[in-house]
Write a structure and sequence with these properties.
By secondary structure, the protein is mainly alpha-helical. 58% of the residues lie in helices and 2% in strands. It has a 3-stranded antiparallel beta sheet with strand order 1-3-2. A hairpin with an 8-residue loop joins strand 2 and strand 3 (323-325). Helix 8 crosses helix 11 (227-263). Mean pLDDT is 85; it is low at 111-121 and 123-139.
Length: 327
């Protein structure tokens, strides 16, 4: 016998100061951030850089620790440490978020419903071998009816399309938790909410790293909480994500200006500008990673990095394993 499917009704937001203040604060912060992203020449590097931190934050919500340097080097095929399953799962999450980031925003807006998932990601709501973790069979409910739950979630999405973008994203996040189309896939809720924000035009110039906001905020989704509490938690997560993203952009802008001053007189054939761009696009850069990405010898890189000035900061202080970061 199939497990009885849960239901989800979208209530109206009550006129309570707590939730209205949280909504307005998050909505205004999103608008400001998207405008800054639109005007920034570092938009692409900054957006991509955030997703590495977001993937590690997503694993943290699953009570797993994945180190940022491990993920960056593993993604850049420069990882030389011992492989562990959580690292592979983090890479899968990173690739899904990068797929949402690099999707054409115009195509997202041409979806049949304003809040519907983009086609390339909609097919990945089913089991994803790169991300699904190894879970013993006895943890799975064979009568879960994932297809039925997913259909109900899609109906909620269609109803949410009539709401403002931020509220639609919050409903998407909440309904994914409540209906649980995947038994082990609650982590997708933040990705789906971020996609809705972008598809609805609220964050056209970035994919909001909501998992970072979730890690920084004090609230968590909890079935025991009422609708107002759950929505307030989401709005606070969004506000924290915006603050973290803004801080990252400010730091990157400063680092970029300092590095450009150091390389303004470089020759046309110099690889220093490419190295500076790599420093901006990756949260951590090692000699093997830069050598592979830029096709430059390791010996040349050891000479080039100091030429970028004080912006690249070494964070390992170990002769055999040297990594730098900016911002």
């Amino acid at each position: 016998m199939l497990t009885k499917l849960p239901d989800y009704q979208i209530p109206e937001i009550p006129l309570q100061p707590s939730i209205l203040d949280a909504f307005l604060r998050a909505d205004e912060a999103l608008a400001r951030l998207d405008e800054r992203a639109k005007l920034s020449p570092l938009q692409a590097a900054w957006s991509n850089r955030l997703l590495y931190r977001n993937a590690c934050a997503a694993m943290h919500t699953l009570n797993c620790v994945v180190y940022l340097d491990d993920l960056v080097l593993f993604d850049g095929h420069a990882f030389s440490g011992a492989m562990y399953p959580d690292l592979s799962a983090a890479l899968g999450i990173l690739k899904l978020w990068q797929g949402g980031l690099h999707e054409d925003a115009a195509m997202l807006l041409r979806s049949p419903m304003p809040g519907e998932l983009p086609r390339p990601l909609a097919s990945q709501i089913a089991a994803d071998p790169e991300v699904k973790r190894d879970v013993p069979d006895y943890f799975w409910d064979r009568d879960w009816d994932e297809q039925g739950r997913l259909q109900r979630w899609h109906r909620v999405m269609q109803e949410a399309a009539q709401r403002p973008p931020l509220l639609a994203a919050a409903i998407t996040w909440d309904a994914w938790h409540m209906l649980a189309p995947e038994q082990q896939g609650t982590w997708r809720s933040t990705l789906l909410a971020a996609i809705v924000l972008r598809a609805r035009g609220k964050t056209l110039n970035l994919l909001l790293p909501i998992d970072i906001g979730q890690r920084l905020s004090r609230g968590r989704w909890d079935l025991r909480h009422d609708y107002v509490q759950r929505m307030t938690v989401f709005f606070e997560m969004v506000t924290c994500a915006v603050q973290a993203a803004s801080k990252e952009l400010i730091g990157l802008t400063s680092a970029n200006e300092r590095m450009r001053l150091r390389i303004k007189d470089a020759s046309k054939n110099s690889r220093l500008p490419a190295l500076a761009d790599l420093m901006l696009a990756k949260p951590i850069v090692s000699i093997p990673l830069a050598s592979r990405e830029l096709r430059i010898s390791k010996q040349a890189l050891r000479v080039m990095i100091p030429r970028l000035g004080s912006a690249p900061r070494e964070i390992t202080e170990r002769a055999r394993y040297r990594c730098w970061t900016v911002a």
